[in-house]
Design a protein that fits this description.
- With 273 residues, this protein is an alpha+beta fold.
- It has nine helices and eleven strands.
- It is elongated, with a radius of gyration of 21 Å.
Length: 273
């Protein structure tokens, strides 16, 4: 009996893996074994290039929490499990030590923009278009298309190959008066709207993926930030701390900063060749 096929009704599975190389074990690895391990890892990446899924992305962790970071994307739970085991088997036995892992899925936010929201923005926003007018109808068609594209790429992301990846898990508080889940929907949507406006200020500098993990891992969401400059990562996280949704209701896990690399560059960077 093989692995059961376990798809999602929408979206894909995402696994973040962080490994440390056992230097003691690696000291016994021959040059031939090292070369074969590199070839296996490179072949795995070549076979799963994305841009959406299946995809294997390699990084070097910076800061000492790990040596290697891998992000996996696959439609089925069984597929992402196979990719994870393939990464582990690429290395000589005993040479790879997992230090952290995170399982999540892509999802649409509960507060996704509806067609009624789009109409209100066109009617009462900066443009103040008259419903039923040709200008309103044209703008509404464009807005619907953009919203559909946003939802598609939220479920089936195509992450940019920017050099920096920051990952951290987070929760919403359930603490007395600061219980996110005791707020009504409209209050939560308003707070998240302000949070989104802060994020849009970093368009072109930060690419963000939020994946859901309630019931799947120890936190409720995984946050993946891609950037070309580390100070942009620092700035967006710092600025968002002042939004009420974070300042009052946010709880954050460990942060992992990583550099995008090919398998061969990773090998040279870690001195595995």
């Amino acid at each position: 009996m093989g692995l059961p096929v376990v798809p999602l009704s929408q979206g894909i599975h995402v696994v973040h893996l962080f490994f440390r190389i056992s230097r003691l074990r690696w000291s016994t690895v021959t040059p031939g074994e090292s070369r074969q391990a590199l070839e296996r890892l490179q072949a795995l990446c070549d076979a799963n290039p994305g841009p959406s899924h299946p995809r294997v992305m390699l990084f070097a962790n910076v800061g000492g929490k790990a040596d290697i970071a891998v992000v996996l994307f696959a439609a089925g739970l069984q597929e992402v499990s196979v990719l994870q085991r393939a990464v582990e088997r690429a290395f000589p036995p005993g040479s790879l030590e997992r230090v952290y892992s995170y399982l999540s899925v892509t999802e649409l936010p509960e507060y996704v923009t509806t067609e009624d929201d789009l109409k209100r923005m066109l009617q009462h926003g900066e443009r103040k278009l008259e419903p039923g007018s040709p200008e309103f109808d044209a703008a509404f068609t464009t807005a619907k298309q953009k919203n559909a594209e946003y939802q598609h790429y939220r479920l089936y992301p195509e992450l940019l190959d920017w050099p920096i990846l920051c990952f951290y898990p987070m929760n919403k508080k359930r603490d007395g008066a600061d219980n996110w889940y005791s707020l009504d929907f409209d209050a939560r949507k308003k707070l998240m709207g302000g949070h989104a406006r802060t994020g849009r200020k970093y368009a072109g500098r930060i690419s963000q993926l939020i994946t859901g993990s309630a019931g799947l891992d120890d936190w409720e969401w995984g946050v993946t930030l891609l950037a070309e400059r580390l100070d942009d990562v620092k700035s967006i996280v710092y600025e968002m701390r002042f939004d009420e949704v974070s300042a009052r209701f946010g709880e954050f896990g460990p942060f992992y900063i990583n550099l995008r690399m090919t398998a061969s560059d990773l090998w040279a960077h870690l001195g595995l060749d």
